[in-house]
Write a structure and sequence with these properties.
Distance between the termini: 37 Å
Number of strands: 3
Shape: flat
Largest sheet: 3 strands, antiparallel
Strand order of the largest sheet: 1-2-3
Helix content: 25-40%
Number of helices: 2
Radius of gyration: 13 Å
Order of helices and strands: EHHEE
Structural class: alpha+beta
Length: 69
């Protein structure tokens, strides 16, 4: 296990889409197209930005929580 220097919690941005998509593909390898489409993510970010959270570990995308209201 590697040492962690920095953990950051931040709001998801549309620029994070590539990292989010890759994480979802890796998390759900047995599901065809296991990722949200970019336009779906855009709606979430525009309508409820404070509900879309990203966890960064040492400045690398590590995970997220998506929600809607």
């Amino acid at each position: 296990m590697r040492e962690i220097d920095n953990i950051t919690l931040q709001f998801l941005k549309l620029e994070d889409y590539g990292d989010l998509k890759q994480a979802m593909i890796e998390a759900y390898p047995n599901i065809p197209e296991p990722f949200w489409k970019e336009k779906q993510l855009k709606v979430l970010v525009e309508n409820f930005p404070e509900g879309q959270i990203v966890i960064m570990i040492d400045n690398e995308f590590a995970g997220c929580a998506l929600s809607h209201h």
